[in-house]
Amino acid sequence: MPERPLLIFPDRDEEARQKMSAGYGRISKPDHATQVTRLDNRFTAFQQVMENRMAEFRLNPSGIEPEEVLVIEVAGNVTQFLSVCRNTEGIEWMGDIEADGLVEDELFYSGEEFSEGKPLNGRLLLSMTNQTGIRNLLTMWENWKENEDYDYPYGLNGWKKIFPSIINIRRWGVQERFEETGVQDNWEFELQHGKDRISFELELWYRKPEELREESQLNVEELVNELDGEILNILDISEIRYHGLLVELPNRSIRELLADQDVSLVRCDQIMFFRPTGQSVPKVEVEDEEDREELEIEESVLGTEDYEMAVFDGLPIQNHNALRDYLIVDDPENFEEGYPVLKREHGTSISSIVIKLAI
């Protein structure tokens, strides 16, 4: 039996079955004056953070120009974010994901009145911003603050839909990058078992321009080297917007990161997630006959049956030429019945990639 899992999953837990949401529907939001009062200081604080980092950069211009991942929590579904990012200089779209853990309050709620503790549908809008981007974002905010019907230039009117829906704005920080990924528990386990060097994954924010991905990667490599670490592998897959490094650090550096998270690697804004790695079973070339027989005995424990690969994603087009003979869709809730073909592009693409890797 392997000491570590082949795949890392969260700890098992049991919860009551939840009903599927009926959709975003109508969400009540604060009036314009209340929203301005709530958020004005938060925008200003974010600007101050960027100015402080720029001051540090000017003292050490050999480093990478400061950037921050801005997280905008919004109520409901905002569809204009990608468009405004494309048209706002200094702001690069990083993602738009469902927000977990949002609950209704007196300002944001669905229906006629809010219910305490009731889940609230919302999104996390993620963007990489530099000083120019923050300056432009603040200009958009000041325009909306003075006039909620302000007529923005072409391609920027989406900000009028975003600002009224904002619950909070903040930086992507150590909590999301490091504390909530399970990597600390994994490291503690490895240290308890006497590992001298421990490997883990660093998933970087996927930058669309290749030169920015290279710049991010070089910066992270330098930080790993400062901890006497080693880069074991690099993976850049544009089809799924993935850029990751397989990293190995000595146990003394791992202990340092566990004891003090105010370390450059943990606070590096180019890193999206620290992730634990599962146990791998490498293919080994053996020339000596005696060693071969011993290896065959060990491999027999794994069995010789064909293995299946699982894909957790949106529904694919099952009869697509690239998938037809390889895919079994498990759909116990019968989502397929109301799942339009035009919305199956991502599921089809991911399934196709997995099949290409497997055959």
Pick out its properties.
359 residues; alpha+beta; 4-stranded antiparallel sheet; 10 helices; 34% helix; globular
What layout of secondary structure does this protein have?
Elements: E1 27-28, H1 32-59, E2 68-75, H2 81-87, E3 91-98, E4 109-110, E5 122-129, H3 131-146, H4 159-162, E6 166-171, H5 174-179, H6 183-192, E7 197-204, H7 210-226, E8 230-237, E9 242-250, H8 251-259, E10 271-276, H9 289-299, H10 345-358
Antiparallel strand pairs: 1-4, 2-5, 2-6, 3-5, 7-9, 7-10, 8-9
Helix pairs in contact: 1-3
Number of helices: 10
Major sheet details: 4 strands, antiparallel
- Span between termini: 27 Å
Radius of gyration (Å): 24 Å
Structural class by SSE content:
alpha+beta
Tell me the β content: 15-25%
Going across the major beta sheet, what is the strand order? Answer: 3-5-2-6
Query: What is the string of SSEs from the N terminus onward?
Result: EHEHEEEHHEHHEHEEHEHH
- Helix content percent band: 25-40%
Number of strands: 10
Give the CA-based shape: globular
Mean pLDDT: 84
Low-confidence stretches: 20-24, 280-284, 293-304
Outline:
By secondary structure, the chain is an alpha+beta fold.
Report on the structure:
By secondary structure, the chain is an alpha+beta fold. 34% of the residues lie in helices and 18% in strands. It is built from ten helices and ten strands. The protein has a four-stranded antiparallel sheet. A four-stranded antiparallel sheet has the order 8-9-7-10. A two-stranded antiparallel ribbon has the order 1-4. Strand 8 and strand 9 form a beta hairpin. Helix 1 packs antiparallel against helix 3. It is globular and about 60 Å long. The two termini are 27 Å apart. 22% of the residues are buried.
